[in-house]
Design a protein that fits this description.
single chain; 44% helix; 24 helices; alpha/beta; 9-stranded mixed sheet; 21 strands
């Protein structure tokens, strides 16, 4: 009936035509009437007008009557959309059976009103839209984890679970400690238990954040950036620059001499100048002694007993011998008044760069660091000690995240007696492994955030390295990877004008086929965590935005601004009262008039108004959200979305769950 009423104008015309034709046939114009015959005789024009008017009224009068009846039926009788027979949700596409990668966010009814529709549908983000990032914002207890993170992660991990080349791997960060367990259960449920790799104090894996292919400056810069995000940026840039320089050269001296460095080693050599000086002395013995020779007459070294402890070699001249230079030997020769000479030898090709780097470390130590006043040096060291000491005061943390170099040598680490080294993140990603950092923030908030941030940066670097691999070998299909972070405000880092930062990773993640999904309590929490206005740059890199109930006014207003404004007709009313011969009443003392008129008017004006008012975001129900979806090509209009908590039947409508008390 509602479909019929949609064409009520055409229906009224058709019915009025039928009535007119039948009426004229049954009741033709009464031409035999004497009065009408007289008019036809005297005034033929008037007679013709009367006959045509009679015929027209047979059509117009039924049209007006039928139109009125149809309008009344359409307004008061025909059932509206809310009264239609409710159709069930379309069948939910099981993640393990999907041929293409996509993510079901929830069920969608009306875009702009929180009412049930007769034909609900699923709100879906296709694969190309997933690579542009997703941020979930909601206050405490709104269902961010249960209604968004858990269902979305399960959909991704279940996709192509038994296809070694297509299954999805990635990194999971959280602060509460239960999300990792849930991820492990999801993998086990889909036959991927072996793909779970956990980093924790009880895990067999040991992870050194400084053991990678980055140079000393990049590692030091990463530590400085992390300290800035943890403790804030000071007004004077000298302190960050000086601490970065100190960490850089401490890392560099270890890379030169040992090809290995840990955060604990950086800490102990930064706070103890004697150890740093001894390390430089080791470098001098290694590079200066090997590149210098002390030459004496062959007969002298054969006949002088005090020279016997040193190993001598025949020189090119048969009458001379040489040995590697050492200050002790030079002192012995000088005391014995034995003639000698010192010659420099060009270092081997593989040692030339290290020798040059060592000279740079010596110049910094002698001409820069030691020239700084002791009090100022102490202040610089204290600025980094507060962070690096986290890897010294907890033996379990030191054991897990500062492993010895022997662990990486299979010959010196049989059966993993020093622990199992965490494989390179790039290899784990390409194997479809899911890395999870299980270090609850309640154990040590600063340390948990530091470890999570360093692991996140290593993961981002490994993901971005895929871009070069994909460009050099386009025929090789790269598996999608995911980056999932709950309570993202604890791990967010931005670089602003600097070369690192999450906002730069999110802008490049699409090309590397990475799916970033992050959840935070509010936009205000990101704003308070990050410096300046960098939070805006971070948000623009996550195109799909899911807003659950928000409890602070700033986040609600920002969400309303992001959803945009639309032109709407806004009514305004005015009432006017006028009187003639007005006078002041003696009884009441008020103006009165014998003749008064009252008029009311209603006007409409076109105004720009929020599509969703800020108040709407504060009143969203549990598992109810407003979504700004992006399909990878075009932004979609904001819409209501009803989420599917993992503990409820996904095929049952949100409104049925709410009516049954399940939400």
């Amino acid at each position: 009936m509602q479909n019929v009423m949609a064409y009520r104008f055409v229906l009224s015309l058709a019915l009025s035509a039928v009535v007119g034709v039948v009426g004229l046939y049954l009741r033709p114009f009464p031409a035999d009437n004497l009065l009408l015959a007289l008019i036809a005789e005297r005034r033929p024009t008037l007679y013709a007008e009367l006959s045509y008017t009679y015929a027209t009224l047979w059509f117009s009068t039924p049209f007006l009557g039928i139109s009125g009846v149809c309008a009344w039926l359409y307004i008061f009788v025909i059932q509206t959309d809310r009264r239609r027979p409710q159709q069930p949700l379309p069948p939910y596409p099981a993640p393990e059976d999907r041929e293409d990668l996509f993510l079901v966010l929830g069920e969608q009814h009306h875009r702009g009103s929180a009412e049930r529709a007769s034909e609900p549908r699923w709100l879906v983000i296709p694969e190309r839209g997933l690579y542009t990032g997703m941020v979930i914002v909601g206050a405490i207890g709104t269902g961010k984890t249960s209604a968004c993170m858990y269902p979305y992660v399960e959909q991704l991990l279940a996709y192509r679970a038994h296809d070694p080349a297509r299954k999805i791997g990635g990194l999971v960060l959280e602060v509460k400690g239960d999300f990792c367990r849930h991820v492990r259960d999801i993998l086990a449920r889909h036959g991927r238990a072996d793909d779970y790799v956990e980093i924790s104090l009880t895990s067999p894996y040991r992870y050194n954040p400084l053991h990678n292919d980055l140079d000393a400056y990049a590692l030091a810069y990463g530590i400085a950036t992390l300290m800035t995000n943890l403790f804030g940026r000071g007004q004077e840039p000298f302190w960050q620059q000086a601490s970065t320089n100190l960490v850089k050269f401490v890392i560099l001296i270890h890379q030169i001499l040992d090809d290995y460095v840990t955060l604990f080693q950086v800490y102990e050599h930064a706070i103890n100048p004697d150890k740093l000086r001894a390390k430089i002395a080791d470098g001098e013995r290694r590079f200066t002694a090997k590149n210098r020779r002390l030459v004496v007459n062959k007969r002298e070294h054969l006949l002088t007993p005090v020279l016997a402890p040193w190993t001598w070699h025949d020189d090119a001249h048969v009458d001379q011998s040489w040995t590697p230079w050492s200050p002790d030997l030079e002192d012995v020769l000088t005391a014995a008044t034995i003639p000698f000479s010192i010659t420099d030898v060009a270092p081997a090709a593989d040692q030339a760069d290290k020798a040059a780097q060592f000279e740079a470390v010596k110049r910094w130590f002698e001409d820069d660091w030691m020239r700084i006043e002791p009090k100022l040096r102490t202040s610089i060291v204290e600025g980094i000690s507060v962070f690096l000491s986290l890897f010294d005061d907890n033996p379990r943390v030191k054991h897990t995240f500062c492993p010895p170099k022997e662990m990486y040598d299979p010959a010196r680490n049989p059966d993993g007696i020093h622990g199992i080294p965490l494989p390179p993140l790039g290899e784990l990603i390409e194997q479809g492994k899911v890395i999870a950092l299980n270090f609850p923030i309640a154990m040590n908030p600063g340390l948990a955030r530091a470890l999570g941030t360093m692991l996140k940066q290593d993961f981002q670097r490994a993901v971005l390295n895929r871009i070069h691999t994909m460009s050099t070998d386009p025929s090789h299909t790269q598996r999608p990877v995911m980056f999932v972070c709950d309570e993202y405000q604890a791990f967010a880092t931005t670089g602003e004008n600097e070369p690192s930062g999450d906002e730069k990773f999110f802008s490049l993640a699409r090309q590397a086929r990475c799916i970033p999904i992050v959840a935070t309590q509010s936009i205000s929490s990101l704003r308070s965590t990050l410096s300046g206005e960098s939070w805006r740059t971070l948000l623009q890199g996550l195109r799909t935005k899911i807003f659950l109930a928000l409890s602070d006014d700033f986040s609600a207003h920002m969400a309303a601004d992001l959803c945009g404004k639309a032109e709407r007709l806004k009514p305004s009313y005015s009432i006017t009262e006028a009187g003639q011969d007005a006078r002041v009443s003696i009884l009441t003392g008020r103006p009165a008039a014998h003749r008064a008129t009252v008029s009311a008017s209603k006007t409409y004006s076109l105004l720009l108004d929020y599509v969703f008012q800020p108040k709407v975001f504060a009143e969203l129900q549990n598992a109810q959200a407003i979504v700004l979806p992006y399909d990878g090509l075009n932004p979609q209009p904001p819409t209501y979305c009803y989420l599917k908590p993992y503990y409820l039947d996904v095929q049952t409508s949100y409104f049925d769950h709410r009516a049954a008390g399940g939400l």
